[in-house]
Amino acid sequence: MKTKAYSVYILYIWLFLFSFLPLLLVLAVSVLSKDSNKLVTLPLTLSNYAGLFTPVFAKILLRSVLIALLTTGLCLLVAYPFSYFMIKSRHRSLLLLLIIIPFWTSSLIRTYALIAILKYKGLLNALLLKWHIIDAPLSLLYSNFAVISGLVYNLFPFMVLPIVNNMERFDFRLLEAAQDLGASRWAAFTRVFLPGTAAGVLSGCILVFLPAMTLFYIPNVLGGARSILLGNLIQNQFLVLEDWPQGAATSAVLTAILLLLLACYRQQNKGRAR
Amino acid sequence: MSEPLIEIRQVSKSYGNTLILEDMSLSIYDGEFLTLLGPSGCGKTTLLRMISGFEQPDAGEIYIAGRCVNQLPPQQRDVHTVFQSYALFPHLSVFENVAFALRCKKIADSEVRTRVMEALSLVQLEQFAERGIQQLSGGQQQRVAIARAIVNRPQVLLLDEPLSSLDYSLRKAMQSELKQLQKTLNMTFIFVTHDQEEALSMSDRIVILNQGKIAQIGTPRSVYETPRNRYVASFIGEANIFDIDVQNVNGKSLQTIVENVSLSCPNTGDFQAGDRLHLIVRPEDIRVWGLSEIENSDGMLPGKITEIIYKGSTVDLKVKLASGKIISASEFFDEDDDKLEYSPNENVWVQWLPGWEVLLPYEN
User: Fold this and answer.
1) What is the DSSP string of A199-226?
2) What's this model's pTM, rounded to 2 decimal places?
3) Does a structural domain hold residue A44?
4) Of A47, A143, A170, B85, which alpha carbon lies 20 to 30 A from B184's?
């Protein structure tokens, strides 16, 4: 019992040192002033937060949310049927392995590899030209399309894994029961299968939406200069403008938004368990 | 009887090389409580799933209310099932589980409400309508499953071993409740079980299945008292089976030798001298006498008691006969013989009245 208590303490100390304390630091920095020599200085001020109430920031926030939503939607659209066929397939473990293998390579490298596919004289354009689907190469790179492709590609497993996990536990005899009671295949799907797997879908959406809001290197690599998202904005504020207080304030707002979403998710789960 | 409600016509089904049902024909009548009885793997569940539409016959036809339903999917058949696992929808309340069939038919809310509450009251669960499924006990979930299947008033209710996961006393209670419900609704019940006692106590007719074929169809009493073959005799109730040869036949009785004792019994099957037969006696038809109780031991078999099990209303005995064969006997406490005192290793005489045995052709 003693050792168990110790390991719990270690966990708490870890969380305190590497999660809670940095968060406090971010909050602290966000209310300090910018200083070109020492990075931050007194006096305390709320002007960094006030600086966020600008049309530019609102536009970036809105665009980040839209792109994250679109990414989540696309991931779900592909992952849901994919998961179904996966658990029905005899090669389930192989398919799962194929999903996981790319993770052994750095996500940054795989994102650079996407450039080779999406660039003007890249693989995708070459194929589309060869099949006579297009007459001239499309400029796919450095667009929202490229950013969303990169996000969907990188985050897809985070959608698949919780859904597969959930579908594996689904009792398929319930579908027979529904049909026995007069439900068409579609009704059995919407009234029984979909609600029965909703928890997995929700977990997957959270796991995709949160990183989609914050991953900064994918828009950096694939999006070019024009498509600044929240993640890039924070990165720029810290590293390019060296305005740490402003960057910290942006981070704090982003963290607050994401925590709010998580709180909604937990509330939803509580309602389900009741 | 009138036209059958369900007709199984020469249906066969196999999975790979395993024959599950072989050329089976069966008529089921409106309003009857029919039980499909047999050990696991005899094809009873497959037959049930064919009636509900989840399996297709390889050959033959199934008719429901005069219409061939071979091509009809489950959702279009006027047949509902109570599943062994209950298969209740975990994300819906008791009320919405029961309402499911009505919602699928897009029935108006007010009517759904009355019909669901009516179905729930039939299984005494009105006050549980708003509960979640996980908050119910196994017995209550069973009742929800029944209410869900009858709410739409199907012509036929299929019950796939619905009581198998309940404990003994609950099962007994549900048996009589189900029987009562079937009478109240005047609905055709097709009940699958491997429990012969359950089949005997609930059914109007029992279909005994053995390896994909019908071994016998009949009322509980007829299959128990006049089994048509050795399989039925030993599957329904306990049976002592002797293999005998007919010595000679005179008039309506025949002579045979059982355990070196010459016996005469009614010739119920038009048997000839030299025929090899099974002679079957139920334990409750056997009388066991102490040596001192008997003066004339003609037609009695000598034996020795090896086991005594007191059962309250009966005493069950195991008696070892001279040949080493062990038979079972149930002795009732009644006014004629209220002592029923036996001791282990006691030598006894064993007897049954002529005509209480069942004679069947010998099967290998």
Assistant:
1) HHHHHHHHHHHHHHHH--HHIIIIITTT
2) 0.80
3) no
4) B85
